[in-house]
Amino acid sequence: MAEKKPQTFANHTRLDPPFHFFLLPVAALVVIGGLIHLIWRPSWHSASFLVISVAAALALLKTRLYALRVQDRVIRLEERLRMAALLPEPLRSRIPEFTERQLIALRFASDAELPTLAGRALSEKLSPADIKKAIQVWRPDYWRV
Description:
The chain has 145 residues and is mainly alpha-helical. 66% of the residues lie in helices and 0% in strands.
């Protein structure tokens, strides 16, 4: 099995080819086709096809978003547990102050740099992108859907 490429800020985002390059374009084309068909040949049939195609596209997007939302909840829990074990007491009591996006970004920080970066994230109100850019030793997350 091939070695995984080391993860960095530059390459940490993931695309799911079947979803991003097949399902999304097909859904968009079906909705556009339904709209064009309704304009060229207005009828109840054309209108119902457009409504059904929009509903299917929305179902596709919502299904993807639900999976990402569940992952975000799991990441948030994992990071709170990791912080409870690694942060010194003054910072440990401030764990509830982290935003969800900050927790999700901090998952990439190594255990050694987590306390310093967590303190900076709270005191400087760092954005998720700023947190990720500040990470020196990247802790990869290859499981994100």
